[in-house]
Amino acid sequence: MVRYELMSRTYAPTLKEDPAEAELASHRLLLRAGMIRKTAAGLYSYLPFAWRSLMKIEKIIRQEMSEIGAQEMLVPMIVPGEIWQQSGRWDVYGPELLRLKDRHGRDFVVGPTHEETFVDLVMNELRSYKQLPITLYQIQDKFRDEMRPRFGLMRGREFIMKDGYSFDATVEGMQKSYEDEKAAYARICERCGLKALPVVADSGQIGGDTSVEFMALAESGEASLVWCDCGFAADTEAAKAGIAVTEGAEGELTRVHTPGIGSIADLAAFLGVPENGTRKALALVDGDKRPTVCFVPGDHELNEVKAEHAFGEYHLMTDEELQEYGLVKGFIGPIGLPENVRVCADISLKDSIWWLVGANEADYHLASACRGRDFEIPEWFDVVTAQEGDACPHCGKPLHTARGIEVSQVFQLGTKYSEAMGATFMAEDGTEKPFQMGCYGIGVSRTLAAIVEQHNDDKGIMFPVSVAPYEVEIVPLNVGDDLVWPAAQKLARLLGDYGLQVLVDDRDERAGVKFADADLYGMPYQVILGKRGVANEMAEVKCRATGEREDVPFDKLSSYLVEKIIPYRA
Description:
The structure is a single chain. The chain is an alpha+beta fold. The protein folds into three domains: 50-240 and 401-453, BirA Bifunctional Protein, domain 2; 254-381, YbaK/aminoacyl-tRNA synthetase-associated domain (YbaK protein); 470-568, Anticodon-binding domain (Rossmann fold). The protein contains 14 helices and 32 strands. The strands form eight sheets. Strands 4, 8, 9, 10, 11, 12, 13, 22 and 25 form a nine-stranded mixed beta sheet that branches. It has a six-stranded mixed beta sheet with strand order 1-29-28-30-31-32, with helices on both faces. Helix 11 (484-497) links the parallel strand 28 and strand 29. Helix 1 (25-32) packs across helix 10 (444-454), helix 2 (48-67) packs antiparallel against helix 5 (171-191) and helix 2 (48-67) crosses helix 10 (444-454). The longest helix has 21 residues, at 171-191. It starts with a strand and ends in a 5-residue tail after the last helix.
């Protein structure tokens, strides 16, 4: 039985310099530590150290799924295009979906997610409510043909993902399955050493009415979120926050000369009003090709995801389109707009009566424009991005902002896929009903990257015990001698006998090289053996996360490390 591994026999080719293409700490450190290697854009090989960590992440996932009764299985990665056409996603998913044909000319896709596959699997087998509920999951490679794959494992084209699907007879049952998965996902993040927030999210291309993302907090995160001390958190793509707006001056409608002032910041400064006392006009062409002007608070920005929900596949007007539709760039307002222009506003302005707006005339604005007297707003939408200082929708306190890495997401799908694909069961009342479904995904390889993003310093990675490739690295400063090297082997065997996962750096390298590599690899505990210490049967133990060092007698080393490690392992 192998009780420890030797560094000289481990494939972990390190890099001395930071790779030029690596922008994030996780990308840089995983490459430098010989844990991943790039094959092509967005495609990476996982080397032994990374693979050991990934297996530990998967072990945690499997344990938590077992706790809630989810059953693991595996479906093909290549999926018939027919069932994607049946669900309606064939045409709407976009170019990220890799489509291909087999030798017979039949359509297939490389699965980026497997709602259709699992529905197709169970629809002819689960026929009665008595067989429900059931939750199935898999851990499998996925592929999404990202236009700009970047940041290493954070946004690759091929990635490892756990995806699961629950099938229930009732909405209440589906909600219970959803809550069970959400609680399990929170435990998975905690056990992987991730500080993550469950945030209200947009369901995107998966669909469904309710969704929560688990965001690992990191400055490098692609996602922007808002959170409150009361526990509320939401992706800014989905956050509904209370937005404070300042009323304009009451009185008669007044035409104000504002020469050359076309920006909100300049207008507010020129007139001495706060930016949220102005109304920003956003000119766009909606999904039905209608020219549209949407008014929002002057200090807030349009949220692209919310806007797509409101307007379909819209685009902001070009200068040429503004001219074509008779709109004056920088001076658009609700009074005197061309008749063919659709008018709407963000819901945060619904209680605001007095507005400061553009006059639809170059170099002029209108003060004391009164909604109900001077203009009307026929439609209201939630289209702006929540930001720092907006009011929490739960308690009213000011929101904080942060950036995060989405590592997992849970969805209440309802009958979105079961109805589209005709997947029904015999209900208790004898009628055929569509399954109530939930969908649950964890980016396994992305979780590894998120762990490194949260656990690193200027020397390298600092793995939590639960996901570290090895729990202990023994660093003998002399090898091949008759003092230090025999002691290193003896201690490695002893620690292995206690069930600890041990790596021994048996390379004939200078002490500085070994110390640098040990810090780069980030194993939680380093056992450093030098001649003086070994002569006194003492080992220096370094905690990688804190940098603390302690001299531990050989006869106490096993119990010392077992106490530090066993309670925290996967």
